Amino acid sequence: CELLQLFTLHFMTFDSASTVPDLLSIFHEQEMTETVHETNGHGYLATFVGKNGRFVILRVHSHGLVTIDLQCYEEDNISQLDNLLNALETKLKALLNGNITRIKRLPALIRGAKVDRYWPTADGRLIEYDIDGVVYEEDSAYQNIKILHSQQFGNILVLNGDVNLAESDLAYTQAIMGSGKEDYAGKEVLILGGGDGGILAEVVKQKPKMITMVEISFIVIDGCKMHMRKTCGDILDNLKGDCYQVIEDCVPVLKKYVKEGRMFDYIINDLTAVPISTEPEEDSTWEFLRLILDLSIKVLHPSGKYFTQGNSVNLSEALTLYEEQLGKLSCPVDFSKEVVCVPSYLELWVFYTIWKK
Amino acid sequence: CELLQLFTLHFMTFDSASTVPDLLSIFHEQEMTETVHETNGHGYLATFVGKNGRFVILRVHSHGLVTIDLQCYEEDNISQLDNLLNALETKLKALLNGNITRIKRLPALIRGAKVDRYWPTADGRLIEYDIDGVVYEEDSAYQNIKILHSQQFGNILVLNGDVNLAESDLAYTQAIMGSGKEDYAGKEVLILGGGDGGILAEVVKQKPKMITMVEISFIVIDGCKMHMRKTCGDILDNLKGDCYQVIEDCVPVLKKYVKEGRMFDYIINDLTAVPISTEPEEDSTWEFLRLILDLSIKVLHPSGKYFTQGNSVNLSEALTLYEEQLGKLSCPVDFSKEVVCVPSYLELWVFYTIWKK
C-alpha cells in the first residue's frame, strides 16, 4: 500500500507577488510538466507533474498569500524534496526582498498508511498522534473497537473513532472517581460502562462493599483485558470477585434496580461524552443520556454522589445544554464541575459531580 | 487577508478503482473545469477549477487509495462544499460496493490566517491549537517572542516558534521545582532563564533565603508580566524583592559566581530544551548547554540539586545523548528523570534531577 505525503508551505507577504514567473524556473529544472489554470480572477494557479508521481500546486493569491502544496509517494527521495522546498523558500525570500511576514512549512500529512495517525479532538482540531500500530480491532453490534499503540501514551482504546482512554490516563480514572476526595471503603458502587477496567481496578483497591459494573459490550472488555493491562491490571481476568461483579447490558439492569428500590452510594457513569449536537430533542445520544441520568438518580442514595465525564472544555454550548438537562430531572440535583488534563486527549476535559438536593 | 482552506478526504479500498469516470459527473455538475494530467503510470490524476477559486485534486492510486483535496477560500459557501464532499463520499461508497476499508475526512487545514494555529510538537507531529489571537509579539536580539491566546490553555508564550509555557501549565513549574518533594525554605536558589516568572512566583511562596534569577531577555519578562499573570502573578512587577533579584545575562554572571566560589542549594535551569540534533559537536545549542551545565555544577552545593527540562519523551536519541553528556562533566554527577504531562505541550515531557556524586 502506497503512502501519499502532502507537504504544505506558505508565505505571507506585503507584496502582491508579481514575481511568480521567476519561481517557475525551479520547477522546470526539475523537469516537471506545467499547467497554468484559468481561475477567473482568483489569483495565479499552476500545477506541475513530476517524476515518480510528484505533484505540486502553486497558488499566488491576491492579498499576498503564496501556497505551495507538494504531493509525493513515501518511496520518493525525501532529501531531494527537501532541497526543492528549500530552493523555493530561498528564491521567494530573495524575490520578495524581505517583505515576508510569515513562512510556514507544516509536517507532511500522510494518507493511505496502514495505521491512521489522525484523530481529531472533540472540538474538531486536526491532531496527529504518534501511533505506530493497531493491536486490536473488532466490531460489536454497537461500535467499532480499536486499540492502537502510541509511543508515548501506551495503548489507546478508540471507540467509533473517538479516543476513549490510554494507558497513560490514570488522570481520567482519578477525575471520574472524584479526584481523590472520596472514600469508597464499605460503599455500594455502580459503574456504568467502564469496559477498559480502569475505574474497577482503582475502586477495588479501596475495599468497597460491592461494585456492580454494567458494560454493554464484552468485546471491549476482551480487548482491554489483553491490551490495556497498565489500566486494568488483572481485574478483568475474572468478571466476578470478592467485592465486584461485571454484568452485561445497562438499561434493563438499571430499570430492574429502580423496581427493586436498590440504592448506591456512588454511581460512576463512564458510558459516553456529552453529545456535541446542541439539538437535544433530535439527537438519540441525548435521549439515551437523559434516560440513563434519570434512572441513575433514582437509585442514587440521598447522600450519594454521581460522577460523569462531560466533554472538551471548549464545547461550552454542549456543556451548558447538559447542565440545563440536569435542572429538568424528576428529582432535583445540584452539580459541580472540574477541568482536568487527560494526557492522551490533547484537550482539557470537563468532569461533573452530581448529587441530590 | 484571504484564508485558503484545504479539505482532505481519502478512501482505501480493496478495489483497484476502475470506477473513476463515474465520479467526474459530480464535478461537471458543479461546472468545474477539468484537467486530466499525464502521470507516467502513477495512477489517475485530475484537477478541477471551479467558481470562487475552488480547486479540487482527485487522485486514484494504483493500490486502492483515492485522495480528494479541496481548496477553497474562507468566504466560500461551506455548506455547499460539505454537500459536494458528501456527494463524493456517497458515490464512491456505491461505486466500490462496500469494498472500502477506510473513509477519512480531516478537519480543514487553514493557510493565510492572521493567527497561526499550527505549532508542531517537538517530535514533529502536526498539531492544531485552539489559538484565537496574538496578544504580544516582539523580537529581541536572541529570539522572536510571541504570546498567543488559547481558549483552553489561556495565554501561551511561544519563543522562536516553540511552545514554551501556557497559563495552564503549573505542572511544568512544579516538575522543574522537583515535583513537590523539595523544601526551599531558607535556601539559596539560582534560576537560569524562567522569564515567564512561574518558577520565581512559586519558589518565593516557600520563603527561601535568596533567589537569583538570571534571564537573558528582559523583553520576555515585559511580555509575561503583562500577559501571563496566571503564571507569574505580580512577582515580575518588581525585579527586586525581599528574597529575590532578577538580573540580566546568564553566562557572565555564572562565571563571576564560579570565580567568587558562590554555592547554591538549588539550581533550576529553565533556559532551553535538550537540542534535537544528535550531532553534539556541530550544534551550537549543545555547546551552550554543556557550558551552562559545567558552570552550574561548579556553583552547586555538594548536597544541592540541579533541575532541568529535557525534551519530548519520544526524542529518545536526543535524551540519551544528553545523559551521555552528564557523564562527561568535570565533576561526576548522578541523575534521575521523570515524565510529566504539561497540558499545553500535547506531548509528554522529560524532566531531570541532577546531583553531585
Automatic annotation (TrEMBL), chains A, B:
Entry annotated with the keyword Acetylation: yes
Record's subunit section: Homodimer. Dimerization is mediated through the N-terminal domain and seems to be required for activity as deletion of the N-terminal domain causes complete loss of activity.
Protein origin, superkingdom: Eukaryota
EC number: 2.5.1.22
GO biological processes: spermine biosynthetic process
Lineage, uppermost ranks: Eukaryota, Metazoa, Chordata, Craniata, Vertebrata
Organism: Anabas testudineus
UniProt-recorded name of the protein: Spermine synthase
SUPFAM superfamilies, A to Z: S-adenosyl-L-methionine-dependent methyltransferases
Entry-linked PANTHER family: SPERMINE SYNTHASE (PTHR46315:SF1)
Active site: D270 (proton acceptor)
Domain called PABS: residue spans: 117-356
InterPro entries for this protein: PABS (IPR030374), PABS_CS (IPR030373), SAM-dependent_MTases_sf (IPR029063), Spermidine_synt_N (IPR035246), Spermidine_synt_N_sf (IPR037163), Spermine_synthase_animal (IPR015576), SpmSyn_N (IPR040900)
Keyword line: Acetylation, Phosphoprotein, Polyamine biosynthesis, Transferase
UniProt pathway: Amine and polyamine biosynthesis; spermine biosynthesis; spermine from spermidine: step 1/1
Coiled coil regions in record: none
Enzyme class: transferase
Family to which this protein belongs: Belongs to the spermidine/spermine synthase family.
Catalytic reactions on record: S-adenosyl 3-(methylsulfanyl)propylamine + spermidine = spermine + S-methyl-5'-thioadenosine + H(+)
Pfam families per UniProt: Spermine_synt_N, Spermine_synth, SpmSyn_N
MF annotations from Gene Ontology: spermine synthase activity
